[in-house]
Amino acid sequence: MSILITGGAGYIGSHTCLCLIEKGYDVVVIDNLDNASDESLKRVTRLTGKEIPFYEEDVRNTDKVIEIIGKHNVDSVIHFAGLKAVGESVAKPLMYYENNLVSTVHLAEAMEKTGVKKLIFSSSATVYSQNNIVPLTEEGNLGCTNPYGWTKLMNEQILRDAAKAHPDWSIVLLRYFNPVGAHESGTIGEDPSGTPNNLMPYVSQTAVGRRDHLTVYGDDYDTHDGTGVRDYIHVMDLAMGHVAAVEYASRFNGCDAINLGTGVGYSVLDMVKAFEKANGLKIPYVIGPRRPGDIATVYSNPEKAARLLGWKAERTLEDMCRDQWNWQKNNPNGYR
Protein backbone atom coordinates (compact mmCIF):
# COMPACT_ATOMS: atom_id res chain seq x y z
CA MET A 1 0.00 0.00 0.00
CA SER A 2 1.21 3.49 -0.87
CA ILE A 3 0.38 7.02 0.24
CA LEU A 4 -0.25 9.47 -2.59
CA ILE A 5 1.12 12.93 -1.77
CA THR A 6 -0.11 15.79 -3.92
CA GLY A 7 2.25 18.77 -3.89
CA GLY A 8 4.85 16.46 -2.40
CA ALA A 9 7.81 18.37 -3.86
CA GLY A 10 6.96 21.47 -1.82
CA TYR A 11 8.29 22.61 1.54
CA ILE A 12 6.00 20.69 3.89
CA GLY A 13 5.37 17.91 1.35
CA SER A 14 9.04 16.98 0.94
CA HIS A 15 9.62 16.85 4.70
CA THR A 16 6.50 14.71 5.10
CA CYS A 17 7.73 12.33 2.39
CA LEU A 18 10.97 11.92 4.32
CA CYS A 19 9.20 11.21 7.63
CA LEU A 20 6.78 8.72 6.07
CA ILE A 21 9.59 6.83 4.35
CA GLU A 22 11.58 6.71 7.58
CA LYS A 23 8.48 5.23 9.26
CA GLY A 24 8.34 2.47 6.64
CA TYR A 25 5.62 3.83 4.34
CA ASP A 26 5.75 3.82 0.55
CA VAL A 27 5.00 7.20 -1.00
CA VAL A 28 4.19 8.39 -4.51
CA VAL A 29 4.19 12.07 -5.44
CA ILE A 30 2.16 14.19 -7.87
CA ASP A 31 3.30 17.80 -8.27
CA ASN A 32 3.00 20.19 -11.22
CA LEU A 33 6.11 22.04 -9.94
CA ASP A 34 4.30 25.36 -10.24
CA ASN A 35 5.89 26.54 -6.96
CA ALA A 36 8.26 23.68 -6.13
CA SER A 37 11.33 21.83 -7.42
CA ASP A 38 11.74 18.10 -7.94
CA GLU A 39 15.27 18.56 -6.59
CA SER A 40 13.69 18.31 -3.13
CA LEU A 41 12.56 14.75 -3.86
CA LYS A 42 15.96 13.78 -5.24
CA ARG A 43 17.47 14.95 -1.97
CA VAL A 44 14.89 13.02 0.06
CA THR A 45 15.96 9.94 -1.92
CA ARG A 46 19.60 10.61 -1.02
CA LEU A 47 18.69 10.99 2.66
CA THR A 48 16.52 7.87 2.84
CA GLY A 49 18.04 5.65 0.17
CA LYS A 50 14.58 5.09 -1.29
CA GLU A 51 13.46 6.18 -4.76
CA ILE A 52 10.17 8.12 -4.82
CA PRO A 53 7.85 7.54 -7.79
CA PHE A 54 7.20 11.08 -9.07
CA TYR A 55 4.69 12.37 -11.61
CA GLU A 56 4.84 15.92 -12.91
CA GLU A 57 1.09 16.23 -13.23
CA ASP A 58 -1.76 18.51 -12.20
CA VAL A 59 -4.20 17.06 -9.68
CA ARG A 60 -7.04 18.44 -11.80
CA ASN A 61 -6.23 15.74 -14.38
CA THR A 62 -8.62 13.19 -12.85
CA ASP A 63 -7.89 10.42 -15.33
CA LYS A 64 -4.17 10.60 -14.65
CA VAL A 65 -4.72 10.61 -10.88
CA ILE A 66 -6.92 7.52 -11.22
CA GLU A 67 -4.21 5.82 -13.28
CA ILE A 68 -1.52 6.61 -10.68
CA ILE A 69 -3.70 5.42 -7.78
CA GLY A 70 -4.28 2.11 -9.53
CA LYS A 71 -0.67 1.63 -10.58
CA HIS A 72 0.68 2.14 -7.06
CA ASN A 73 -2.12 0.51 -5.04
CA VAL A 74 -2.71 3.76 -3.14
CA ASP A 75 -4.41 3.42 0.24
CA SER A 76 -4.34 7.01 1.56
CA VAL A 77 -3.88 10.53 0.20
CA ILE A 78 -2.21 13.60 1.70
CA HIS A 79 -3.35 16.70 -0.21
CA PHE A 80 -0.82 19.57 -0.12
CA ALA A 81 -1.20 20.78 -3.71
CA GLY A 82 -2.38 24.36 -4.10
CA LEU A 83 -1.42 27.99 -4.54
CA LYS A 84 -0.49 29.58 -1.24
CA ALA A 85 0.56 33.25 -1.47
CA VAL A 86 -1.87 35.49 0.42
CA GLY A 87 -0.98 38.67 -1.46
CA GLU A 88 -1.21 36.96 -4.84
CA SER A 89 -4.61 35.55 -3.89
CA VAL A 90 -5.90 39.08 -3.30
CA ALA A 91 -4.61 40.19 -6.71
CA LYS A 92 -5.72 37.03 -8.55
CA PRO A 93 -8.70 35.59 -6.63
CA LEU A 94 -10.25 33.74 -9.57
CA MET A 95 -7.00 31.88 -10.23
CA TYR A 96 -6.88 30.81 -6.57
CA TYR A 97 -10.50 29.66 -6.42
CA GLU A 98 -10.19 27.74 -9.68
CA ASN A 99 -6.89 26.07 -8.80
CA ASN A 100 -7.36 25.30 -5.11
CA LEU A 101 -11.02 24.28 -5.12
CA VAL A 102 -11.20 22.45 -8.45
CA SER A 103 -8.10 20.40 -7.61
CA THR A 104 -9.72 19.14 -4.40
CA VAL A 105 -12.98 18.26 -6.15
CA HIS A 106 -11.12 16.33 -8.87
CA LEU A 107 -8.97 14.54 -6.29
CA ALA A 108 -12.05 13.51 -4.30
CA GLU A 109 -13.67 12.24 -7.53
CA ALA A 110 -10.57 10.15 -8.25
CA MET A 111 -10.72 8.72 -4.72
CA GLU A 112 -14.42 7.96 -5.14
CA LYS A 113 -13.82 6.10 -8.40
CA THR A 114 -10.89 4.07 -7.05
CA GLY A 115 -12.23 3.25 -3.59
CA VAL A 116 -9.58 5.22 -1.67
CA LYS A 117 -11.21 6.34 1.58
CA LYS A 118 -8.53 8.10 3.66
CA LEU A 119 -7.49 11.72 3.09
CA ILE A 120 -5.33 14.16 5.06
CA PHE A 121 -5.95 17.75 3.96
CA SER A 122 -3.47 20.61 4.31
CA SER A 123 -5.59 23.36 5.87
CA SER A 124 -4.48 26.46 7.74
CA ALA A 125 -5.00 28.65 10.77
CA THR A 126 -6.17 31.30 8.27
CA VAL A 127 -9.62 29.67 8.45
CA TYR A 128 -10.13 31.22 11.92
CA SER A 129 -11.84 34.60 12.01
CA GLN A 130 -10.36 37.58 13.82
CA ASN A 131 -13.01 37.56 16.57
CA ASN A 132 -11.62 34.66 18.56
CA ILE A 133 -10.01 34.25 21.97
CA VAL A 134 -6.49 32.82 21.94
CA PRO A 135 -5.32 30.16 22.18
CA LEU A 136 -7.42 29.06 19.20
CA THR A 137 -9.38 25.84 19.53
CA GLU A 138 -10.93 23.88 16.69
CA GLU A 139 -14.37 25.08 17.84
CA GLY A 140 -13.40 28.75 17.26
CA ASN A 141 -15.23 31.09 14.92
CA LEU A 142 -14.38 30.60 11.25
CA GLY A 143 -14.00 33.27 8.58
CA CYS A 144 -11.21 34.65 6.40
CA THR A 145 -9.65 37.94 5.31
CA ASN A 146 -8.26 36.86 1.92
CA PRO A 147 -9.06 34.49 -0.97
CA TYR A 148 -6.28 32.07 -0.01
CA GLY A 149 -7.85 31.58 3.41
CA TRP A 150 -11.29 31.20 1.88
CA THR A 151 -10.03 28.44 -0.41
CA LYS A 152 -8.87 26.54 2.67
CA LEU A 153 -12.18 27.01 4.47
CA MET A 154 -14.23 26.18 1.35
CA ASN A 155 -12.13 23.07 0.81
CA GLU A 156 -12.86 22.03 4.39
CA GLN A 157 -16.59 22.33 3.65
CA ILE A 158 -16.25 20.39 0.39
CA LEU A 159 -14.53 17.57 2.26
CA ARG A 160 -17.02 17.62 5.14
CA ASP A 161 -19.82 17.18 2.63
CA ALA A 162 -17.92 14.37 0.89
CA ALA A 163 -17.50 12.60 4.25
CA LYS A 164 -21.25 12.89 4.92
CA ALA A 165 -21.97 11.33 1.54
CA HIS A 166 -19.43 8.56 2.21
CA PRO A 167 -19.74 7.53 5.88
CA ASP A 168 -16.86 5.07 5.55
CA TRP A 169 -14.40 7.81 4.51
CA SER A 170 -11.80 9.18 6.94
CA ILE A 171 -10.81 12.81 6.38
CA VAL A 172 -8.48 14.76 8.68
CA LEU A 173 -8.29 18.54 8.22
CA LEU A 174 -4.95 19.68 9.62
CA ARG A 175 -4.92 23.38 10.47
CA TYR A 176 -1.29 24.51 10.45
CA PHE A 177 0.06 27.50 12.23
CA ASN A 178 3.47 28.89 11.06
CA PRO A 179 5.91 26.26 9.75
CA VAL A 180 9.60 27.19 10.00
CA GLY A 181 12.99 25.48 9.99
CA ALA A 182 14.28 22.65 7.84
CA HIS A 183 15.58 19.11 8.08
CA GLU A 184 18.56 19.03 10.43
CA SER A 185 20.86 17.91 7.60
CA GLY A 186 20.37 21.23 5.80
CA THR A 187 19.60 19.21 2.66
CA ILE A 188 15.93 20.15 2.22
CA GLY A 189 14.13 23.29 3.33
CA GLU A 190 11.85 26.14 2.29
CA ASP A 191 12.62 27.68 -1.09
CA PRO A 192 10.01 30.38 -1.84
CA SER A 193 9.95 31.85 -5.32
CA GLY A 194 10.25 35.64 -5.39
CA THR A 195 9.91 37.69 -2.22
CA PRO A 196 9.10 35.44 0.77
CA ASN A 197 5.60 35.74 2.20
CA ASN A 198 6.63 34.37 5.58
CA LEU A 199 8.92 35.78 8.25
CA MET A 200 11.68 33.22 8.67
CA PRO A 201 12.67 32.75 5.00
CA TYR A 202 12.90 36.55 4.87
CA VAL A 203 15.14 36.53 7.95
CA SER A 204 17.43 33.81 6.60
CA GLN A 205 17.63 35.36 3.13
CA THR A 206 18.64 38.63 4.79
CA ALA A 207 21.28 36.75 6.81
CA VAL A 208 22.73 35.14 3.67
CA GLY A 209 22.83 38.46 1.81
CA ARG A 210 19.96 38.02 -0.65
CA ARG A 211 18.02 40.85 1.07
CA ASP A 212 19.40 44.13 2.38
CA HIS A 213 17.17 44.09 5.44
CA LEU A 214 14.04 42.67 6.99
CA THR A 215 10.90 44.79 7.13
CA VAL A 216 8.87 44.34 10.33
CA TYR A 217 5.28 45.23 9.56
CA GLY A 218 4.01 47.21 12.55
CA ASP A 219 5.43 47.75 16.02
CA ASP A 220 2.33 49.23 17.67
CA TYR A 221 0.30 46.07 18.34
CA ASP A 222 -0.93 45.25 21.82
CA THR A 223 1.88 42.76 22.49
CA HIS A 224 4.92 42.75 24.77
CA ASP A 225 7.15 44.45 22.18
CA GLY A 226 4.57 45.88 19.77
CA THR A 227 5.16 43.32 17.00
CA GLY A 228 2.74 40.58 15.97
CA VAL A 229 2.76 37.30 17.89
CA ARG A 230 2.38 33.96 16.09
CA ASP A 231 2.68 30.23 16.74
CA TYR A 232 5.82 28.96 14.96
CA ILE A 233 6.22 25.21 14.51
CA HIS A 234 9.24 23.29 13.25
CA VAL A 235 8.50 21.76 9.84
CA MET A 236 9.75 18.35 11.02
CA ASP A 237 7.26 18.39 13.90
CA LEU A 238 4.58 19.37 11.39
CA ALA A 239 5.61 16.52 9.08
CA MET A 240 5.39 14.05 11.97
CA GLY A 241 1.88 15.38 12.60
CA HIS A 242 0.96 14.08 9.15
CA VAL A 243 2.36 10.65 9.96
CA ALA A 244 0.21 10.62 13.10
CA ALA A 245 -2.82 11.77 11.08
CA VAL A 246 -2.37 8.92 8.58
CA GLU A 247 -2.37 6.47 11.47
CA TYR A 248 -5.41 8.16 13.05
CA ALA A 249 -7.34 8.03 9.74
CA SER A 250 -6.92 4.25 9.69
CA ARG A 251 -9.00 3.89 12.86
CA PHE A 252 -11.77 6.48 12.55
CA ASN A 253 -14.51 7.40 10.08
CA GLY A 254 -15.83 10.89 9.42
CA CYS A 255 -14.23 14.30 9.06
CA ASP A 256 -12.32 16.07 11.82
CA ALA A 257 -10.33 19.33 12.08
CA ILE A 258 -7.18 19.34 14.19
CA ASN A 259 -4.72 22.15 14.99
CA LEU A 260 -1.01 21.57 14.50
CA GLY A 261 0.90 24.16 16.52
CA THR A 262 3.03 24.48 19.62
CA GLY A 263 0.57 26.43 21.77
CA VAL A 264 3.22 29.12 22.34
CA GLY A 265 3.28 32.56 20.74
CA TYR A 266 6.45 34.43 19.76
CA SER A 267 6.62 37.97 18.39
CA VAL A 268 8.42 38.96 15.21
CA LEU A 269 11.25 40.52 17.22
CA ASP A 270 11.40 37.44 19.49
CA MET A 271 12.06 35.38 16.36
CA VAL A 272 14.67 37.78 15.02
CA LYS A 273 16.54 37.82 18.35
CA ALA A 274 16.31 34.04 18.67
CA PHE A 275 17.73 33.61 15.16
CA GLU A 276 20.57 36.00 15.95
CA LYS A 277 21.38 34.21 19.21
CA ALA A 278 21.20 30.68 17.79
CA ASN A 279 23.45 31.48 14.86
CA GLY A 280 25.72 34.29 16.06
CA LEU A 281 24.41 36.69 13.42
CA LYS A 282 22.98 40.19 13.23
CA ILE A 283 19.82 40.80 11.19
CA PRO A 284 19.29 44.38 9.98
CA TYR A 285 15.65 45.38 10.05
CA VAL A 286 13.40 48.40 9.62
CA ILE A 287 9.92 49.04 10.97
CA GLY A 288 7.23 49.39 8.32
CA PRO A 289 3.48 50.01 8.48
CA ARG A 290 1.03 47.33 9.48
CA ARG A 291 -0.17 45.01 6.74
CA PRO A 292 -3.94 45.02 6.10
CA GLY A 293 -5.67 42.10 7.80
CA ASP A 294 -2.88 41.35 10.29
CA ILE A 295 -3.91 41.01 13.93
CA ALA A 296 -1.90 41.22 17.13
CA THR A 297 -1.79 37.68 18.48
CA VAL A 298 -2.54 34.22 17.05
CA TYR A 299 -1.49 30.93 18.58
CA SER A 300 -2.99 27.47 18.91
CA ASN A 301 -4.44 25.22 21.51
CA PRO A 302 -2.84 21.90 20.46
CA GLU A 303 -4.61 19.69 23.03
CA LYS A 304 -6.85 17.95 20.48
CA ALA A 305 -3.83 16.79 18.47
CA ALA A 306 -2.29 15.36 21.63
CA ARG A 307 -5.53 13.61 22.55
CA LEU A 308 -6.49 12.17 19.15
CA LEU A 309 -3.18 11.85 17.32
CA GLY A 310 -0.85 11.26 20.25
CA TRP A 311 1.24 14.06 18.77
CA LYS A 312 2.89 17.18 20.12
CA ALA A 313 5.58 19.53 18.87
CA GLU A 314 8.96 18.61 20.36
CA ARG A 315 11.54 20.91 18.75
CA THR A 316 12.53 24.17 20.41
CA LEU A 317 12.73 27.73 19.13
CA GLU A 318 16.51 27.33 19.02
CA ASP A 319 16.11 24.19 16.87
CA MET A 320 13.88 26.11 14.45
CA CYS A 321 16.34 28.97 14.08
CA ARG A 322 19.45 26.78 13.85
CA ASP A 323 17.94 24.47 11.23
CA GLN A 324 16.56 27.41 9.24
CA TRP A 325 20.04 28.90 8.96
CA ASN A 326 21.72 25.55 8.32
CA TRP A 327 19.49 25.09 5.26
CA GLN A 328 19.96 28.65 4.00
CA LYS A 329 23.75 28.86 4.40
CA ASN A 330 24.15 25.50 2.63
CA ASN A 331 21.70 26.54 -0.09
CA PRO A 332 22.00 30.33 -0.47
CA ASN A 333 19.90 30.25 -3.65
CA GLY A 334 17.57 27.46 -2.55
CA TYR A 335 17.35 24.48 -4.91
CA ARG A 336 18.58 26.53 -7.88
Q: What can you tell me about this protein's structure?
A:
By secondary structure, the chain is an alpha/beta fold. It has a domain at 2-188 and 232-262 and 299-314: Rossmann fold (3-Layer(aba) Sandwich), CATH 3.40.50.720. It has 11 helices and 13 strands. It has helices spanning 11-22, 39-48, 62-71, 86-91, 93-114, 147-165, 199-207, 235-249, 268-279, 303-309, 317-330; strands at residues 2-6, 26-30, 54-55, 74-79, 118-124, 170-176, 178-180, 214-217, 229-230, 232-234, 254-260, 266-267, 285-288. Strands 3-2-1-4-5-6-11 form a 7-stranded parallel sheet, sandwiched between helices. The chain has a two-stranded parallel ribbon with strand order 7-10. α6 (147-165) links the parallel β5 (118-124) and β6 (170-176). α3 crosses α5 (93-114). The radius of gyration is 19 Å and the shape is globular.
| Adjacency order of strands in the biggest sheet | 3-2-1-4-5-6-11
Number of strands: 13
Structural class: alpha/beta
Gyration radius from CA atoms, angstroms: 19 Å
**What level of helicity do the residues show?**
40-55%
Strand content: 15-25%
CA-CA gap between termini: 33 Å
**Major sheet, described briefly?**
7 strands, parallel
CATH architecture of the domain at 2-188 and 232-262 and 299-314: 3-Layer(aba) Sandwich
* The CATH class of the domain at 2-188 and 232-262 and 299-314: Alpha Beta
What would the CATH topology of the domain at 2-188 and 232-262 and 299-314 be?
Rossmann fold
